[in-house]
TrEMBL record:
Upper lineage: Bacteria, Pseudomonadati, Bacteroidota, Cytophagia, Cytophagales
Name this polypeptide is given: Glycosyltransferase 2-like domain-containing protein
Alphabetized CDD domains for the sequence: GT_2_like_c
Coiled-coil region(s): none
Listed InterPro entries: Glyco_trans_2-like, Nucleotide-diphossugar_trans
Pfam short name (any one): Glycos_transf_2
Domain Glycosyltransferase 2-like: start-end pairs: 5-137
Keyword list, A-Z: Membrane, Transmembrane, Transmembrane helix
Transmembrane regions: 259-283
SUPFAM superfamilies: Nucleotide-diphospho-sugar transferases
């Protein structure tokens, strides 16, 4: 039995996988591992390209673009290792991180899963990502900018304080290692999620099995946007997330915090619609511009809310479906 099964989901990223696997083989020592690639109907030469360089890779085809959760679950089902690692195709290892993570899981049975800090392509530490549930929930609320609003929201949705500074509530699915036995108890990723949010929801269930650790001084490179259709999403105060991200995160809120928390967010967005338009029109009036000029940001917000509405009833009743925008 291998010490580790490394699961990579592919969607038209064969060169990224080759680079990722080159870094795995270059830096990993002291453990045995297998590589599992699950393809989400890439409809290209990914399989031939990867297997030509790494014939020992175990390759599985989903038969459709079924999303991140379902593909990883297939990989977990096929895994022969006692530990499993969810690893994005657009990642690179820079040291023997895998052996260190396996060692933590072996030596600390109270730890359910481990992750590492993310570096940008230039080696700089990426801005602090969300590691608690309420950090993510606070980001959903669109309040007047300023420290006062941030402080108020943090009082309403405070973060937990752990004795171990490395402990977090959830870990990014770009690099998440856990035991196969832990998955057996917690269950696999929720297959209603197409992309995004599945690692947050999984973190909640994994966290019931033990501590979640973001290891200090443990790092990997995350290039990002390996299979993204939109690399240039412009973040604004009212449009912070791509539609797929927020549909998935709203589903997570419904699943973890219930109907009331979900309805509160949806009501918040609906009530904001006339406010963001009226606010911009008043600014145009003050600046002596045409009243209905420069409303692209507001129209995009309205489009986002319409997309959320398409999933409203399914989300309310927590229906089993693929929440794909």
């Amino acid at each position: 039995m291998p010490d580790l099964s490394i699961i990579i989901v592919n969607y038209k990223t064969p060169q990224l996988i080759l680079n990722c696997l080159a870094s795995v083989y270059q830096h990993t020592r002291g453990i045995t591992f297998e590589i599992i690639v699950v393809d989400n109907q890439s409809e290209d030469d990914s399989r031939q390209i990867v297997l030509a360089h790494y014939p020992d890779v175990r390759w599985f085809d989903m038969g459709a673009n079924a999303g991140f959760a379902r593909a990883n679950n297939l990989g977990i089902e096929q895994a022969q290792g006692r530990n499993v690692l969810l690893l994005n195709s657009d990642t690179l290892l820079i040291n023997n991180l895998l052996a260190r993570c396996v060692q933590v899981l072996d030596e600390q049975p109270d730890v359910a899963a481990v992750g590492a800090h993310q570096l940008s392509a230039d080696g700089s530490l990426r801005p602090n990502l969300y590691t608690t549930f309420n950090q993510m929930r606070r980001a959903f609320y669109i309040l007047p900018s300023g420290q006062r609003s941030e402080d108020w929201l943090k009082r309403q949705l405070p973060d937990p304080v752990f004795a171990d500074p490395a402990q977090v509530e959830w870990l990014s699915g770009a690099f998440l290692m856990t035991r196969k036995a832990t998955v057996d108890r917690a269950g696999g990723l929720d297959e209603s999620f197409f992309m995004y949010g599945e690692d947050v929801e999984w973190g909640y269930r994994l966290g019931k099995q033990g501590r979640m650790l973001l290891l200090p001084d443990a790092q990997f490179i995350h290039l990002e946007y390996g299979s993204s259709d939109n690399r240039h999403h412009v973040v604004t105060h009212i449009n912070r997330f791509k539609p797929q991200i927020q549909v998935s995160q709203l589903l997570w809120v419904r699943k973890q915090y219930g109907v009331g928390a979900y309805l509160l967010l949806m009501t918040h967005y609906v009530l904001l619609l006339p406010m963001v338009f009226a606010g911009k029109i008043l600014i145009n009036l003050k600046n002596r511009k045409p009243l209905f000029s420069e409303l692209d940001n507001q129209r995009l917000f309205a489009r986002q809310v319409r997309i959320f509405g398409r999933f409203f009833w399914k989300t309310i009743f927590n229906r089993r479906a693929l929440y794909k925008v």
